[in-house]
């Protein structure tokens, strides 16, 4: 497997002492890499650093083997991301939002329309195609944002808590969409606190706590939840934080 994204020694501090420290992480093609941790562990910060939304104080971020400061717009077009808020312009309908997102990722007009049509069916959004985004439920807005992140077949996909607002049907649709893209060769980094869902799809699971990566868990382990909390507890005890 080739490495599609990596962090090496990445540190970023914030006022008050929060931040992330010494992060070493890679995402490989054809792999679903899950990042798990309690709220405030630093998962979103790590993802924003990987996507260039934040710049590190130290260390390096690379995508497709190149420092992110050297990437051209065409390189970024091969990235799909869902971090913090769904992509959706409130006064555009669902189909229009998807077409616009595809165009922003470098697809031509016909390609963008075809991509939007596919994802309307893939994420069960067809019935909302002509509905303005501001009229959608939170869960359906999330589906639109996920469709925008996935529809252009990116080689790197970064998803931050993508199932948070989804109903069970939406979770299953997203799971299948992620698995299809990994099978097609995309490298996927997904954060979640739903350990049961992570266990179903992940090839690798990395645990984050207090801004650091503290270990890994074996995918498919029946005792995954117990092992996760034990790893976090032991890390807190070592740091004297418990």
Query: Termini, distance in Å?
Result: 39 Å
Count of extended strands: 10
Structural class: alpha/beta
- Give Rg in angstroms: 18 Å
CATH fold descriptor: Rossmann fold
Q: Provide the residue-averaged pLDDT.
A: 93
Give the total of domains. Answer: 1
CATH superfamily membership:
P-loop containing nucleotide triphosphate hydrolases
The arrangement of helices and strands along the chain is EEEHEEHEHHHEHEHEEH
- The poorly predicted ranges are none
Shape: globular
Give a written overview of the molecule.
The protein has 242 residues and is an alpha/beta fold. It has one domain: Rossmann fold (3-Layer(aba) Sandwich), CATH 3.40.50.300. 37% of the residues lie in helices and 25% in strands. The protein has eight helices and ten strands. The protein has a six-stranded mixed β-sheet, with helices on both faces. It has a four-stranded antiparallel β-sheet with strand order 2-1-4-5, covered by helices on one side. A hairpin with a 5-residue loop joins strand 1 and strand 2. The longest helix is centred in the C-terminal third of the chain and has 16 residues. The chain is globular. The N and C termini lie far apart (39 Å).
